[in-house]
Specification:
InterPro entries: ECM_Assembly_Org, LCCL, LCCL_sf, VWF_A, vWFA_dom_sf. With 626 residues, the chain is α/β, with parallel strands linked by helices. Helices cover 30% and strands 18% of the residues.
């Protein structure tokens, strides 16, 4: 009996040992069969933003076509995480428009992002954003995986994390998968990187529904992230108020009208519209002009492009002159969003030629501080020139005839090529010569004391002072104009505002003024200047009276000075030698400390020139300009 029991025990032990050896062998075979998965770099869509992925570093493959302006990019070199990943890659030059693999590294948020045009992509400006990223084409190292516990992980293909996110539905950092329940030994071995992703199934194309959201966002609220979209404040280096006058006449046809609208949309995208940068409105003209939307209607490029798409053609003639007058009188107003401190720019688009005259309307626009650009498409042929009402109409209309303000397009299908040249010129505010400044927007009347107390020599010194002041201004028939009155007991108009239109002519005219001699009736001289000189001043000009005297007036100056101030004439009083300080302060516009000056002798008059110019410009810059 004992032998049987021993035999049975031996058989059980033998069987147990066989099973144990078999199990260990099977486990080894299974371990051998586990292979490191082959990683596939996921392809993302062009509209995927870096902020939607929490990995600090990741690799993706961009498709072709991400140069499209629909995919917004914010910044230059360092991009806000709200940017399109692939759009930023094209902008930075890492990829071209054919797509490819890129490595993305997250960096700290910036206090500001400056837009720029690069590699066919216009990036936008942004005041600040919480996170940034940079893009490079060095993706080789990102495929390396740790081979032993404790090895620092390299940038991981996005696939791995996407799988983990899909399974857990929460924000996760890369970590080792949990040990298998069926093996105690497997917990001692590092799991192959990406195993969990393999079990869940790999997806070739990343879809927004399965991504890890940026830190601070909750997946359930993903649909509401639209409200968090940053709105660009605009490019501050291009702060202009811009009106497009588009051709809606019947002759343009529907197809060319659509091309014109696409051109407007491209310009709106390139400009980076915003309250701190350029603002844009559109006026369509035919028989009569109509405002499609004004400067304050749309405050970003996206909304502006949507509005442009909805514009419908009105038809009619091509009355450009009437449209320019409308823009001058109606469009650039405070109620329409005109900011005053920003240059006013009007871009006129003309198919062929206008059906009315533009010269006088354009002159008034220039005098009002509007920089007029003309874009002419398919101009008149030799046989058609007989029908043009006003030959050389573009040169009669633009701000300056130096070629900067004119763009001639041979055919409508080439119009898109003028987007960047136009944007560059419109944003070059230093060259917008028709913008109102303190030196180019006034009618200045000099009221010169020719009394006997002045004397011949000192009178020539006074004339030199008048010339030195005049030299500081930009003089032309549409810029600053100069006039002069000499007075004693009587008054004489030396020359009016409309006599001389160039600086050399004005300076020569000042030199020719002859000394009169006599008494000193300053009050009567002010009244005379208001009637004979300033009454002919243009309504869109600032009126400056600069009175130079060396003594107390024989008549009352209070009422004439009040009349001048009431009529909007800004009066500067320059007293020399025996001039009465109290009279100077009465004559001068309030505050007198900024408009009344005194020098003790004629030879020191030149010292007052810089201060007078400074005060004229300081006052101008403190007021709305347009």
């Amino acid at each position: 009996m004992g032998i049987v029991v021993l035999t049975m025990k031996a058989s059980v032990i033998e069987m147990f040992l066989v099973l144990l050896v078999t199990g260990i062998h099977s486990n080894k075979e299974m371990t051998k069969k586990i292979k490191r998965p082959k990683f596939t770099v996921p392809q993302i869509n062009c509209d995927v933003r870096a902020g939607k992925i929490i990995n600090p570093e990741f690799i993706v493959k961009c498709p072709a076509g991400c140069q499209d302006p629909r995919y917004h990019v914010y910044g230059t070199d360092v991009y806000a995480s709200y940017s399109s990943v692939c759009g930023a890659a094209v902008h930075s030059g890492v990829l071209d428009n054919s797509g490819g693999k890129i490595l993305v590294r997250k960096v700290a948020g910036q206090s500001g992002y400056k837009g720029s045009y690069s590699n066919g992509v216009q990036s936008l400006s942004l005041p600040r954003w919480r996170e940034s990223f940079v893009v490079s084409g060095e993706t080789t190292k990102a495929y390396q995986s740790p081979s032993a516990p404790g090895t620092t992980a390299q940038p991981v293909p996005l696939m791995q994390v996407l799988g983990t996110a899909a399974a857990e539905g929460t924000h996760t950092t890369l970590s080792k998968p949990p040990p298998s329940a069926g093996s105690t030994t497997s917990s001692l071995r590092p799991q192959p990187v990406g195993q969990r992703s393999q079990e869940l199934g790999e997806t070739e194309l990343w879809k927004p529904g399965s991504v890890l959201l940026d830190a601070g966002f909750v997946p359930k609220k993903e649909l509401s992230t639209q409200s968090l979209e940053p709105v660009s404040q605009g490019d501050p280096s291009c702060k202009v108020d811009l009106s497009f006058l588009i051709d809606g006449s019947a002759s343009i046809g529907k197809r060319r009208f659509r091309i014109q609208k696409q051109f407007l949309a491209d310009v709106a995208q390139a400009l980076d519209i915003g309250p701190a940068g350029p603002l844009m409105g559109v006026v369509q003209y035919g028989d009569n002009p109509v405002t499609q939307f004004n400067l304050k209607t749309h405050m970003n490029s996206r909304d502006l492009k949507t509005a442009i798409e909805k514009i419908t053609q009105r038809g009619g003639l091509s009355n450009v002159g009437r449209a320019i007058s409308f823009v001058t009188q109606k469009f650039f107003s405070k109620s329409n969003g005109n900011r005053g401190g920003a240059p006013n720019v009007a871009v006129v688009m003309v198919d062929g030629w206008p059906t009315d005259k533009v010269e006088e309307a354009s002159r008034f626009a220039r005098e009002s501080g509007i920089n007029i650009f003309f874009i002419t498409m398919e101009g008149a042929s030799e046989n058609e020139k007989q029908y043009v009402l006003e030959p050389n109409f573009a040169n009669k209309a633009v701000c300056r005839t130096n070629g900067f303000y004119s763009l001639n397009v041979q055919n409508w299908f080439s119009l898109h090529k003028t987007v960047q040249p136009l944007v560059k010129r419109v944003c070059d505010t230093d060259r917008l010569a028709c913008s109102k400044t303190c030196l180019n927007s006034a009618d200045i009347g000099f009221i010169i004391d020719g009394s006997s107390s002045v004397g011949t020599g000192n009178f020539r010194t006074v004339l030199q002072f008048v010339a030195n002041l005049s030299k500081e201004f930009e003089i032309s028939d549409t810029d600053t104009r100069i006039g002069a009155v000499q007075y004693t007991y009587e008054q004489r108009l030396e020359f009016g505002f409309d006599v001389y239109s160039t600086k050399p002519d004005v300076l020569n005219a000042i030199k020719r003024v002859g000394y009169w001699s006599g008494g000193t009736s300053t009050g009567a001289a002010i009244n005379y200047a208001l009637e004979q000189l300033f009454k002919k001043s243009k309504p869109n000009k600032r009126k400056l009276m600069i009175l130079i005297t060396d003594g107390r007036s024989y008549d009352d100056v209070r009422i004439p000075a009040m009349v001048a101030h009431h009529k909007g004439v800004i009066t500067y009083a320059i007293g020399v030698a025996w001039a009465a300080q109290d009279e100077l302060e009465v004559i001068a516009t309030h505050p007198a400390r900024d408009h009344a000056f005194f020098v003790d002798e004629f030879d020191n008059l030149y010292k007052a020139v810089p201060k007078v110019i400074q005060n004229i410009c300081t006052e101008f810059n403190s007021q709305p300009r347009n």
